[in-house]
Amino acid sequence: MTKAKVSCTKKSKSECPNGCHNKVVSKSGLSLEQICEYIAIDSEIYARIFAKKVLSLVESIALFPEAGRIVPEYNDSKLRERICGSYRIVYRLKNDTVEIAAVCHGSRLLERLL
Prior knowledge:
This protein has about 110 residues and is α+β, with helices and mostly antiparallel strands. The protein has a single domain, classed as 2-Layer Sandwich (YaeB-like fold). Helices cover about 25% and strands about 30% of the residues.
């Protein structure tokens, strides 16, 4: 299981608008590195672009965790997702922590991943 932590870019809670100083923890079974390696088979440039987009999106999730839509398969307000290209970044809201539950291709069923 991958465990990557990404924190809000602000130095402290007081610098964050609306108390957004959230911690992001990844517990996805598939790492961003593995996805990028797969994309790099066809294009290393697109793999790098994709990685930058995902990391930027994860930072924005830390800043605005409720901006993502509720995952339709579960209809749980604490389980949300953001889309990056063909990939879904599914995350859970837990107090002041955002847990990345899955980074998966949009065609995959979430039931097998969560």
